[in-house]
Design a protein that fits this description.
Helices cover about 15% and strands about 60% of the residues. It has a 5-stranded mixed β-sheet with strand order 1-4-5-6-7. Strands 2-3 form a two-stranded antiparallel ribbon. The longest helix is centred in the C-terminal third of the chain and has 19 residues, at about 130-145. It has helices spanning about 10, 130-145; strands at about 15-20, 25, 25-30, 30-35, 45-85, 90-95, 100-120. It has 2 helices and 7 strands; from the N terminus they run αβββββββα. The protein is of the alpha/beta class and about 150 residues long. The radius of gyration is 20 Å and the shape is elongated. The mean pLDDT is about 90.
């Protein structure tokens, strides 16, 4: 029988590392990176659009990441973040911290969720009129954007 045998280098390194040659704001347009590199370190994606286990950039999808604009993943820090553990100005997640925070457990100025802590709260036991007015304005703004 002829079995495929992997070389020692192939065993030590695995994954993907694709990067755009086009540069935007000092970063590659996109960077996709998963796995282990030749130095036995976890690959990290860094680009305007970054996708990887660890990633940073302007728009990020990662398990662990930070983004200047938007982040989606498990542990994310971003201006607008959606994650299990979310930290940002606008934050949505199971555990959420932000000025505008939505989550099962949320902390922020305007908070919505089950166990929430903040100045203006919307939860099962408290409904502040300020937060209802605030989110009504946000939804109206989004409706205007969608019409264009």
């Amino acid at each position: 029988m002829n079995f495929y045998r992997r070389t020692q280098k192939e065993i030590q390194t695995f994954g993907i590392d694709k990067k755009s040659e086009k540069i935007i704001f000092g970063l590659p347009l996109y960077h996709i990176s998963f796995g282990i590199d030749e130095n036995k370190k976890i690959r990290k994606a860094r680009g305007f659009f970054a996708l990887g286990q660890y990633a940073s950039g302007y728009i990020v999808i990662a398990q662990f990441g930070y983004a200047y604009i938007f982040g989606l993943g498990q542990f994310i820090i971003a201006s607008l973040s959606i994650a299990q553990f979310s930290l940002g100005l606008f934050s949505i997640g199971q555990f959420s911290i932000g000025i505008f925070s939505v989550g099962q457990i949320a902390l922020g100025l305007y908070t919505v969720g089950l166990s929430v802590y903040g100045k203006y709260i919307y939860s099962t036991n408290r409904e502040d009129k300020e937060i209802i007015e605030f989110f009504t304005r946000i939804l109206n703004f989004l409706k205007i954007l969608i019409k264009f």
